[in-house]
Amino acid sequence: MRIAVLSGKGGTGKTLVSVNLAAVAEKATYIDCDVEEPNGHLFFKPEDIREETVSIQIPIANETLCNGCRQCVDFCKFNALAYIRNKLIVFEDVCHSCGGCVLLCPQKALGEKERGIGKVQKGRSGNVDVHTGILNTGEASGVPIIKKLLDDNKDAPSAVTIIDCPPGSACVVMESIQDADYCVLVAEPTLFGVHNLNMVYELVRLFQKPFGVVLNKCLEGENPAEKLCLKKNIQILGRIPFDHALGMLNSNAKIAVRENKTYQTIFAKLLDTVAKEVYHETAPHS
Amino acid sequence: MKIAIPVDQKSLETNVCVSFGRAPYFLIYDTTTKESVFLDNGAAASTGGAGIKAAQAIVDSSADALLTPRCGENAANVLKVAGIKIYKTIGDSTGHNIDAFVAGKLPLLDEIHAGFHGHGGN
């Protein structure tokens, strides 16, 4: 089963939940799709790392064939092309590699060349295969790296695959969840957190994914995120307390379930709940 | 010679716009004939690469110089290839900046910012 862990905003606890869910499983693959700032590897400290560069195709103009019609310039929604002094200029870091300009060019003057935008690292940490996507600073989109991470995993999927998503609800998150069997939304008890939870809630519904919420940083008293779940009839999968000991473990890049019995129990129960939900979702169709 | 200025409104009394790529209009002013033309900036609502598209429009307007309070790296590269010089405006008034440029009192813009690239800014 492939479980995507997401949240509307950063700092809510996606990586905490992802890393501990993977570590508590008997055997798991942890995929860090937060390619702009992957941090799961800081906890896992994987060994035997293999590394692969990820490249995209960007246009390159043949000046002899180009007649300056500018169809490509007008077409590019990202404005990655300019035609100045009878010469096409390609802004490589603005290009999203859609390939549209190449298809469109009536003169067949545009070819493609490869450009590295980041890398994928694969290593091992005990029972967990750790796959990390790393986007080079300043690049336009992490989508090609996320695609590579998830495509590679299709060949030899683990019993449990945990996908640690980027924050927000944009293209990179959609790419990360599209093949997931289940989505875990992590929420914190603030109004800001609720606003962002609502955004990912709408996203997973749009993608028709089964989902549930983990309430993180739970304190005594009213929890706005819990209120939203009750109002919208969203399943609450589990609660993680706002706990000094957990904060200390996390700040020291320790994996809570490998260090602390209480958290081992909390996350084992959470994984079990999610597994039952996934079974429940897939059983009627199988 | 023709100069281009990013402006907030289609009038000579308008202020200089704080942004180049996202300015709603460009004033193209001919210092010889004193004629002015306002162009809609089609790049203003772009999701990205607004500076590149705006700079393309300035090049196509056959302006010789751009007067702007700020300019991003990509736009500056387009203008450089086209041989268009970038001058830094002083104050908000479009008229005063035209006068200052004609009198040779505007400095060249030497601070080119790296661009906001989808991360807002102002």
For the record, the count of structural domains of chain B works out to: 1
> Helix and strand string of chain B, N-terminal first?
EEEHEHEH
Q: Extract low-pLDDT stretches of chain A.
A: none
What is the percentage of strand-forming residues of chain B?
Answer: 15-25%
CATH superfamily of chain B: Dinitrogenase iron-molybdenum cofactor biosynthesis domain
- Main sheet: strands, sense, barrel of chain A: 9 strands, mixed
- Estimate the helix proportion of chain A, in percent: 25-40%
Number of strands of chain A: 11
Approximate helicity band of chain B: 10-25%
Radius of gyration of chain B: 13 Å
Please report the number of helical segments of chain B. Answer: 3
State the low-pLDDT regions of chain B, or none.
none
- CATH homologous superfamily title of the largest domain in chain A: P-loop containing nucleotide triphosphate hydrolases
Q: Which range does the strand content of chain A fall in?
A: 25-35%
The N- and C-terminal alpha carbons of chain A lie at a distance of 14 Å
Using a beta-carbon cutoff below 8 angstroms, give the protein chain pair with the largest interface and the number of residues from each chain. A-B, 17 and 18 residues
Q: What is the residue-mean pLDDT of chain B, rounded to a whole number?
A: 92
